[in-house]
Amino acid sequence: MTSNDLKRGLVFLLDNAPCLVLDISSQSPSARGGNTLIKTKYRNLLTGQVLEKTFKAGDRVDDADFEKRKGQFLYADGNNGVFMDLESYEQYELGDDMYGPVKGFLLDGTEVIMGVFEGQVVSIEPPMNVELLVTETAPAIKNATAQAQTKEAVLETGLRLQVPSYLETDERVKVDTREGRFVSRA
C-alpha cells in the first residue's frame, strides 16, 4: 500500500505499531514542481498517543495485521472492563488506558467493535450513539429565555455532560459517543 491509499479510519503499521488515521490532507506541490505531500494525524493504538506525520505521495506504507471484531461489554471490575469477542466467546480484561475513555458510554451488555492487532485487543469503539438515564441534575429551569441554556447532568454510568435546561432526573437521553455530548431525549 502507498501513502496515496491512506484515508480516515484506516489502520496502517508505523514503527511496528498499528496506527489509526484520524485526519488526512494533501498539499499540492508549488509552481516549481515537486512531490505532493500527504499530511496525516493518527493515533498509535498501542500507546494512545495522537501524532502527525507527513508522507510524500507514493511512499510505501505497511498494512497492519488489524481486524475489527464484534464484541460486548460484560461488566466493570474496578478500573478495568471485561469484554467478550462475540465470535470466539473469548474474554478480555482491559485496563483503564483503553476502558477509561469509553466507560461512561457502556452499560453491561453493550455491543462494541474491538480492534485486534496480532491477537491483542488494542481499541474499543462504542456505538456512535447510546441511550442513558439521567440520575442527577438540577431541577428544570422554568421561563428560560430564548437562549439555549444548559446544565450539568450525571448519567447512570457516571458520565457528566451538559444537557438542555428543561431535562429532569429519570429521563433517558441519547448521547453522541464520539464527542461525548447530548443529542436528544431518547
What can you tell me about this protein's structure?
The strands form three sheets. The chain has a five-stranded antiparallel β-sheet, with no helix packed on it. A five-stranded antiparallel β-sheet has the order 8-7-6-9-10. A five-stranded antiparallel β-sheet has the order 13-12-11-14-15, with no helix packed on it. The longest helix is centred in the middle third of the chain and has 4 residues, at 96-99. Helices cover 2% and strands 52% of the residues. The chain has one helix at residues 96-99; strands at residues 11-14, 17-27, 37-44, 50-56, 62-63, 66-77, 80-85, 91-94, 111-117, 120-125, 129-137, 150-155, 160-164, 172-176, 181-185. A hairpin with a 5-residue loop joins strand 7 (80-85) and strand 8. It has three domains: 3-63, SH3 type barrels (Roll), CATH 2.30.30; 66-125, Nucleic acid-binding proteins (OB fold (Dihydrolipoamide Acetyltransferase, E2P)), CATH 2.40.50.140; 129-185, Nucleic acid-binding proteins (OB fold (Dihydrolipoamide Acetyltransferase, E2P), Beta Barrel). By secondary structure, the chain is mainly β.
